[in-house]
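Methods, example record. To illustrate the input and output format used throughout this study, we show the complete record for WXG100 family type VII secretion target. The sequence lines were provided to the predictor; the line carrying structure tokens was produced by it.
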Amino acid sequence: MAGGSGYAIKKSGTESSASELDSAAGQLASVQKSIPQQSCSRPESFGGEDAAPALDNFAGAWQREATVLHDALGEIAKKLRTTTANYGAADHSAISGLRHAAAAAPVSSGAGSTPFG
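The corresponding predicted structure is encoded as:
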């Protein structure tokens, strides 16, 4: 809530966190590009016919896991931004509703009135 007590979302803080997640996803993508998806060298370069398939299996599995992690980081950043926007909209709606209700409230004379009429 703007200027009040209670629950609130600091947009600058959540945007900073979302940006950090985006940055981590970008760094992961850079690392992911450095590991080939499949071997482009001769099997002898990796220790022979037995080692080359193991490296290919490792690289393929790593690529798949890195893709999952990259996508998850992006999704969490997007959800964090959406949640921040939703909280902001809810705060705005609540404040507007309270202001509207306060403006529409009848002014009582105070004599013999009760809160319920």
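Annotations derived from this record:
The chain has two helices and no strands.
The two ends are 30 Å apart (CA to CA).
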